[in-house]
């Protein structure tokens, strides 16, 4: 009986922590102005873009500062 109660507590704690993590992510998305996230272009990460290619989403090159998608809007 004791083992079942401990298992139930562990499951409830795990579920609660997962719920808290998803709530935090949802709040972060909701709180962002116009739903924009800074630094989302893969071309900004030298580990992901070793060849210096342009971003597939907006066409931004690694040496450019601003996303081209923002300039088009």
Secondary structure blueprint with pairings:
Layout: H1 2-31, H2 68-72
Description:
The chain is mostly helical. The chain folds into two domains: 1-31; 33-73, no CATH class. It has two helices and no strands. The longest helix has 30 residues, at 2-31. The model has no long low-confidence stretch (mean pLDDT 76).
Task: Give descriptors for this structure.
mainly alpha; single chain; 2 domains; 73 residues
**Percent helix:** 40-55%
**Strand portion, in percent?**
under 5%
Oligomer: single chain
Major sheet? none
What spatial form do the alpha-carbon principal axes imply? Answer: elongated
Listing every helix as H and every strand as E from the N terminus to the C terminus, the arrangement reads HH
Short overview:
This protein is mainly alpha-helical.
């Amino acid at each position: 009986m004791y083992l079942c109660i401990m298992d139930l507590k562990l499951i409830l704690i795990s579920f609660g922590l997962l719920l808290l993590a998803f709530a935090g992510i949802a709040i972060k998305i909701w709180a962002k102005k116009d739903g924009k996230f800074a630094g989302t272009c893969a071309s900004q990460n030298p580990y992901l873009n070793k060849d210096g290619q342009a971003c597939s989403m907006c066409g931004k090159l690694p040496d450019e500062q601003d996303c081209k998608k923002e300039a088009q809007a």
